[in-house]
Give the backbone structure.
Amino acid sequence: MAHSNNSVITGKFQGMLGKELVFREWDGKTVVAKAPRSPKNGPTPTQEKTQKKFLFASQYAKAVISGNNPDLVDGYQAALRPRQNVYSRALEDFLSAPEVADITTRTYKGAVGDKIVVRAVDDFRVVSVRVEIYTGGGDLLEEGEAQLNLNGLDWTYTATLENSQLAGTVIKAIATDVPNNEGTLELAL
């Protein structure tokens, strides 16, 4: 890929030249690249799935920049990376799910009021963390929303029911980001 600062030769070229080169304007410079090629056989099922996901991401990003939620636009604006705009930042957020990095059960002994701490991260913002506690037999014992801690990374869930059979208990944490992507982690006790 070649770059130009609007020289005498390239001027302000834009578009395709002879189905071989593409000229684009990027960050005040003219960028020259090979022209993309179309596949001879249609897209594979995996490519179709990726294209559909990208279409949904594009629709989400367009909705964000429409300005209906100025706080969200400001949030994405504050989280821009170099050479990125709000549209591409929102698109990136839609395409990446949050991650539940850790579940800490040191203080969970099965009693009402015991705490479970969940660490959840996202490339932009985690908006909620839901905790589900399953018995050793796989039945849902309790579920509820965790509260964000002051450090902005950890979420604390307070148990509301007695759990006398800790062996085999499964704790499941589900983190949700702004575009409603989910990331999960399960921990067996």
Q: What stands out?
A: The CA atoms of residues 14 and 23 lie 5 Å apart.
